[in-house]
Amino acid sequence: MKRYLCVFLAALLTLSCMTSALASAPAGAEEETLYQQYGPWNSWTQEQKDAAGADWDQAQWDDYWQSYEADAWQPLDAYYADYEQWSMEYGTYEGMQDSWQEELSQTKAELGMPYPGINVSLNGEYLDFGGVEPVAEAGRTLVPFRPFLEGLGAQVSYDEASGRIEAVLPEGTSMTLWVGQTRMEYTEGERIQTLEMDAAPCIRNGQTYIPVRFAAEALGLEVSWDAYYETVHLTDVAALVEELDGQLSCANEIYAALQNEWQAQLERTCQAEGEFRFSATLYGEKEHATGTFGLSLEGLGNGQKGEYTLSVQAEPGALEPLIRNGTVWDVDQLAALDGRSLRLLFDLEQGSVYYKGDLIAALDGSELPGDTWVSQTLEPLDLSSVTWPDTLGQLMWQMYGTSGFYLDETPWQVVMQQAEPVLQLLGDSRFTRTVSGEQVRYDWTADLASLVMEQLSDDPLGTLMGWTSSDAQVPSKMELKGQVVLRGGRLEQLSASGELELDSLGLPAAFTFALEATPDRLTLNGALTGEYMGKVELEARSERRETAEAPRTTPPEGEAVESYDVLTGLRLPGVPADFGGAHYVQAALDARYGKAWDADYLAAVGMDQAALEQKQRERDVAAFCDSFLLETPGPELEEEIWALLREIYARTDYTVKDAGDGTVEVTARPLDVFDRVWEVYWQQMDGMDQSGGEDWSRSVLELCREQLEQAEYGPEEQTSVQLQQWEDGTVGLDRYELELLHSTLILPSAPSYWW
Fold it and tell me: What is the annotated signal peptide range for this record (predicted)?
C-alpha cells in the first residue's frame, strides 16, 4: 500500500511540475519521445487531442504512454535508489533485521522456547536438548539424537564405529538409522519397514544429529512446521485423544449410539411427515400483532432415496421486525411463499434430483416453470460410506489439530483449548449413569450461569457470548438438563430442556425449550418471552413409520421434464447422439447469430424460433449494456442496439466440420470490430459524452458503427470443441463453450452474456 501511495504522489508531483507542451515539436525533437514533445495528457488542448486521435496509429500511442510512464517513475526510482544507498551506508537494513530478530527471540522466550533459532515441541512442551540447538540443512530440521530420543522415552544405543543409532520405545516400537546414510528401518506392528529419507544423520561439532520429521513419524508422531517461529511441532495424537476421551466416557457412549442409529436409519425406508411452525406476538396497548411461518413435509424415503412434498404457510404480520433486522427478505417476499409447494424426488447414489412446484421460483425469483419437472445432476453420494471419527476426542483432533494454523500455540494446546467448553459441558462429572439390564440411562445437568461466572475472565464460552461480570449482562438463570436412554447400544429415547432468564436494561426476558425424541418421533417446543415486548414461539414435530413401499425417484412416465442447466442458460439443449456433431455446432452458431434456423435443430432441441430470437435479443442487449456501462435502454434504443448487433453478426465468418470421437473443429476469420471499438473507446473516452442516459448510449452506438465500417477480418484461426453427453442421453455443448467461441474466436472481445 505504501508503494502504491508513493507512486501516486510521485506521479502527481511530476505532472504538476511539467509545463504544457506545444503541438509542434521543437528543434531536435527527432531524438525526443512523444511524451517529451507533447507533455502530460491533461495539459493538452482539445485540438491537440483531436489531431492526435485522428493521426496517430497504435504504435505512436504505445510510445507516448510508455515514455509517459517511464518519466513518471524516474523520481520514484531515484528516491528508492538513494534510500537504499543511504540505508546500506548507515546500517539501517541491518538494524531493522537485528531489531526484528531481537523481537522474535524475545517472543520465543516468552512462549517458553529454549532457543532463539529453531525449536521443537512435543505435546505442547518445548524440548531442551541440553543446550544443543537444532539445525537446518537442505530444508530439513536436524536434532541431537540422544536427548531427542530419550526425551520421547526411548532406550537409545549408538555404535560409534558403524554410526548405527537404535531407539526402542516402551511399547516396543523401534527405529534404526546410520550416520551418513539416508536409509532408516523401523517397526510397524510386527513388520520391519525400510524408508529412504531425503536427509541423512550427520555429525557436527562432535554432536550427532538426525532428521526430526522422519524419526518422529517413524515413531508414530504427527509432525507440523511453523515457518514464522521456526518450530517443529510433534504431537502424540493417540495420547491426546486418550486424554480427551478419558473425560468423555459417557458422552462417547451416547455418540457411538448416535452413529449406530445413523447407519440403521440409512437402511430403513419410512413413511414420514413433519411440521415446523415459527410464530411471533408483539404486545400492543390495545391489541396484539401476530405472524406465523410454517413448513409441512410428507413423503417416503430412506437415507439415499426419497419422494417428498414440502408446503409453506406464511402470514408474516408481526414477523416483520425480525425479518427486517435478521434476514435479506422483506415481508412481501415472505408472504408470497404462502400456499407454495414443492415435490422432490431424489436418488443420491445416482446423483439425480427432480422437483416440481412453484416454491423455487418464489424463493429465488427465477423463471423456472411450476408445472414441469426440473432435473438436476449432482455428484453421486453414498451416505452409507460416510465415516465419522470413532470418538469425540478423535473428532476434536480432526477439527482443530490438523489446520496447520496455530498462532502462538502448539497443536496440542490449540486442541485442548478448543475442547475446554466441550469438557465443561459434556465431561463425565455432568452425567449420572444408571444401568438396568440392557438399558443404560444417562442424566445430564448443567448450570451455565454459574459456569460463566466462574470462567468469565478466560472461558471461551463467555468470551464468545460477549458477557461481562455485570449482573445485567449475565443471565441470572441458565439451567439445562437432559436424559438419554440406550438399549443394547442403540438409542431408545432422548430428552432435553432448558431455561434462561435475563434482565437487561430493565426488560426481563426468558427462553425455554423442551425436546423429546425417539428413533421414529420428535417434538420440539421453544419460546422466547419478553415481559413488556411479546413472545416468539417455535414448534416442530416429525413422525416416521417403516414401510416396504419403495420411493419413486423419477417422474411418472409421460410427464414433461426440463433440465435445470438448460432452463437457466448454463448449457444448450442437447440433441440425439446420431444428430451429427458438426450439424449441431453449425446450427447452434447459426442460431446464435441469427444467420439461419435449422428446422431439424429446432425440432431436436424442442425450441421455437421466435422464442429463441427473443431470448437471444434480451441476453445480448443486456450484455452490450453491461459491457459499456449503459443504462437499461428504452424500446427505441433497445431496437437500435439489437439492429447494430445483428449487422455485426451478419458479417461473422466461420466453418464447422467433424473431427471424430465427438470432437468438432471450428475455423473462423475473426472480425476485429470489437477490438477496434475498445481501442478507440479507451483513447477517446474523455471526449465522449459520459453524462449517462440516452446521450451516452448513443455515443457508444455511434462509435461501434464507425468501427464496424472499418472492421477487417484476421487470418484464419481454428479450435475444437468436445460434445458432452447429458443426463438425459442427449449430447451438446455447455453455454460457456459456445460463448467462448463467440467472444474469443469469431468476434474477439465481443460482449458475452456468459460473463
Answer: 1-23
Ramachandran category for residue 287: left, alpha or beta (phi over 0 → left; psi -120 to 50 → alpha): beta
User: Which of 174, 173, 192, 196 is closest to 184 using CA atoms?
Assistant: 196
Residue bearing cell 490449540: 414
Report the distance separating Cα 233 and Cα 177, nearest Å: 22
Residue 678 CB contacts under 8 Å (≥ 6 apart), including other chains: 749
* The dihedral sign for the CA sequence 566, 568, 570, 572: positive
Mean per-residue pLDDT for 299-303? 93
Taking the C-alpha atoms of residue 641 and residue 633, their distance in angstroms, rounded to an integer, is 9
At 471, the pLDDT band (50, 70, 90 cuts) reads very low
Q: What is the DSSP string of 452-469?
A: HHHHTTT-HHHHHHT--S
Q: What is the pTM of this model?
A: 0.71
Dihedrals phi, psi of 27, to nearest 5 degrees: -60, 140
Residues 6+ apart with CB under 8 A from 8: none
Instruction: Tell which residue, 674, 727, 725, 665, has the closest CA to residue 703.
Output: 674
Written as nine digits, the cell of 121 is 515441541
**Cα 462 to Cα 454: distance, rounded to the nearest angstrom:** 10
Q: Which residues contact 267 (CB under 8 A, 6 or more apart)?
A: 302, 303, 384
CA-based nearest residue to 341, from 353, 357, 328, 326: 357
Nearest-angstrom CA–CA distance, 164 and 160: 7
Q: Residues 397-406: pLDDT tens digits? A: 999 988 776 6
Q: Are strands 119-122 and 231-235 parallel, antiparallel or unpaired?
A: parallel
Handedness of CA 50, 52, 55, 58 (dihedral sign): negative
Q: Look at residues 660, 653, 652 and name the one whose alpha carbon lies nearest to residue 723.
A: 660
How is residue 464 written as a grid cell? 464468545
State phi, psi for 521 to the nearest 5 degrees.
-150, 140
DSSP state of 746: I
For 594, which DSSP code? T
> In sequence order, what are the residues at sequence separation of 6 or more whose Cβ sits closer than 8 angstroms to the Cβ of residue 111?
126, 229, 408
Instruction: Summarize pLDDT for 165-178 with one digit per residue, the tens.
Output: 999 988 888 999 99
SS (H, E, C) 144-156: EHHHHHHHCCCEE
Paired strand residues for 542: 274, 522
Q: Which residue has the cell 449413569?
A: 433
24 pLDDT exceeds 50? no
Evaluate whether 526 touches 538 at the Cβ level (below 8 Å): yes
Q: Where are the beta strands (DSSP E) in 304-406?
A: 305-315, 341-347, 352-356, 373-377
What are the beta bridge partners of residue 187? 192
The answer to whether 261 and 147 have CB atoms below 8 angstroms apart is: no
Q: How many CB atoms lie within 10 A of CB 647?
A: 13
Check residue 741 and report its DSSP letter.
I
pLDDT at 121: 94
> Which residue did the predictor score with more confidence, 104 or 30?
104
Q: State how far the Cα of 676 lies from the Cα of 125, in Å rounded to an integer.
A: 67
| The Cα angle at residue 571 between residues 569 and 577, in degrees rounded to 5 | 145
Residues 209-232, mean pLDDT to the nearest whole number: 92
Q: Is the pLDDT of residue 298 over 90?
A: yes
Residues pairing with 311 in the sheet: 296, 341
Dist CA 614 CA 55 (whole Å): 42
CB 721 within 8 A of CB 744: no
The whole-angstrom separation of Cα 87 and Cα 68 is 29
